[in-house]
């Protein structure tokens, strides 16, 4: 078999429609070939020119791609990371690794906007929120943040909103994590916040006026001190206090809430989530009572379903950024659900006693090491600590670090005379002995012998928190809810995880036809390397010589992404699409400021844009001016020209999505971008819909200067129930110097230039641990496979639009009446004729075995459908038949056969209980309710709850694990 034939195998498996199916679809649409269809849809003026050479190698087979990844992984050194600074090695319980991290029932699920089919995920997130509120001692936590440093930034913004002070000053603890301080500096400058750094632990006095104070607890140095006095002083000044706290330490230390904190933030990474060279990890945020409605991101609460049973849902959904737009106070529209689930299940599995035991063990190790070093005359920078010590070295600190590295350990260089050491749950007595040796202590002094002849440094008798004041020792109980005290055996844990996943709908059950939020196949081969220790157990601040494989993989992926987008440089640091947007706008801001154009602060955004666009612009220090769209959903050129003329001297950027948010390839895109450039502005092309362009057109050729890309959409990283995501930012050469940098980056130079724009996430390379997924996807698809995927997605979307347009009007279309990779079905005429709403249709689709398409975005009363290239014709036809059948049901309501208040649509979804318990009093049969098509008899997905009352949940906000009695 020729290599080319073998290499095509993966694309054939990734793309759901084969040649015969595509022929059927093309015949219906009247096109001779897939290429002919896409080239008719994509304006001829933007077709990509053929390339004589490509940086993307020919497609590899799955075996070849895994072999290349193994070779890259072998270039990473799996050392024992004891660097700390917010990242700790951890044991992921195997039952969680196998049943969550490596389970498509969890990682292929979508954001729980359809709560009736997301009850498992939502319960796991309620567990997460309860875990965080219990440990922090605060009233309400959200469903996770992106990482600790960005959570601190969000905490600063919460303090600004919640404080009554008119000051622009935010006080930063000098002992805050260095990456956090760097990110704060970058983000604060854009929104006019002045940072004042103070050594709070040593009694520095707060300024007379400030709106907020950040305290790191314990500090980056490891120091544990009582911040109660600072908290009181801040409150007197009218400021809110944000405490960045280590959750494991909080099992032994007083909670931030008990100390008077208003906000607590941090990371849950050390709760069983692998290091992954920096992510993805679930940050957290909790607030005191009264600040709930200031929380960014997502909040899970408890409401009730149509039968009055408790049911979980996303609460306060009006805070979502696509609704608040330019009035948004945060651009966070996502979270890190998969990792939050892992962290919450770590707490469920270990329980309060187990977590306390792990923390005590960690504290004993730190104390034993400290005591041994002190006994040999070495001094510590602080005597009060939890897991981290800083040691004064009699000679150059680099020598200690090199000696440790000889034994396979990574320590933290602090300065020329100080070394930092952090211990964790994986640290052994042998590890402690090796570190002590690195500081010059003789091996022969240690008691016992390790497994490999290494002398051990025992820690069992050490006193944890020996120098921590007694008033800081935790007395409060935590994790008292039964869920944290009921699943100790692996059998019980496995069954609990299975029960939760069975309540959910993910891609392993069927199609999730969401427009604007591509849900494509996340192939097993792409996922395989994520769990390899050479990728998963690497500290983000590891020295360059230990991460050559990661850096090589990252550089290759940057080059490949630059080629397919038509840009010169790519930064993979942003760990969400919203953060990629922000990074791109910050690059534009940096460019204008470097050119002396300080007045260029206006960002033009079409009314159809993703809501995070406007929020990101505000957070980049820009002023949003909305541009109208015409009746076809395109940018209104006359309004655009008028807005440009009005704001010519202050125009910073235009943000557009291409294809448009309405799912259409705009014909005038080159004219639009040229008009902005002529006025001195930059063009930001939102990359959310890149999967409709790959191989056919490139953002850089459209006139784009910068874009973010969604690797969790176009490049096959799973959504994980609402995270993880990666949102790299790509730019032309003139903006490359302003792309994200990082104080601990192993390399500042990238294939597209040297980046110096300031950090956008906590880790130098963002969520690097899942980059092997996108690397494998591109490597196995090759350039031609990526083009084929685009064509298949566009074909499927147009086939659905064609088949359904006689039943539901297709709201927008472009060239030749074609849509892009998604289509908008207008349900408003159905509502007007029958009284059946878009919500009714969405919930009835559950009875047919489907996740609903995107509801009421970008147009209220519509469904946006995106089948993706992954679905086969059988599943596409099943969806089409379901939609036609639902239309027929609505017509029966209109005809009076079923009452408007009692029919299968308004009562959907139907649970098993609803059709077997009690008398059946509805005017339609039980079979119609739950088996509207015969094929469901053998494959039925049973929703666990009936339709959830959203308004009730917002009026009665409950965000912690409800008591068991609530479900009785």
From TrEMBL:
Q: What is its EC number?
A: 1.4.4.2
| SUPFAM superfamilies documented for this protein | PLP-dependent transferases
In this protein, which residues make up the domain named Glycine cleavage system P-protein N-terminal?
A: 12-439, 467-741
UniProt cross-references to CDD domains, sorted A to Z: GDC-P
Cofactor(s) recorded for this entry are: pyridoxal 5'-phosphate
A GO MF annotation of the entry reads:
glycine dehydrogenase (decarboxylating) activity
At the top level of its lineage, which domain of life is listed?
Answer: Bacteria
Listed Gene3D superfamilies: Aspartate Aminotransferase, domain 1, Type I PLP-dependent aspartate aminotransferase-like (Major domain)
Ranges for domain Glycine dehydrogenase C-terminal come to 789-910
EC class name = oxidoreductase
Q: Which family does it belong to?
A: Belongs to the GcvP family.
What this chain does, per the entry, is described as: The glycine cleavage system catalyzes the degradation of glycine. The P protein binds the alpha-amino group of glycine through its pyridoxal phosphate cofactor; CO(2) is released and the remaining methylamine moiety is then transferred to the lipoamide cofactor of the H protein.
**Subunit structure of this chain's protein:** The glycine cleavage system is composed of four proteins: P, T, L and H.
User: Which PANTHER family does its entry note?
Assistant: GLYCINE DEHYDROGENASE (DECARBOXYLATING), MITOCHONDRIAL, GLYCINE DEHYDROGENASE, DECARBOXYLATING
Can you name this protein?
Glycine dehydrogenase (decarboxylating)
Q: Which gene encodes it?
A: gcvP
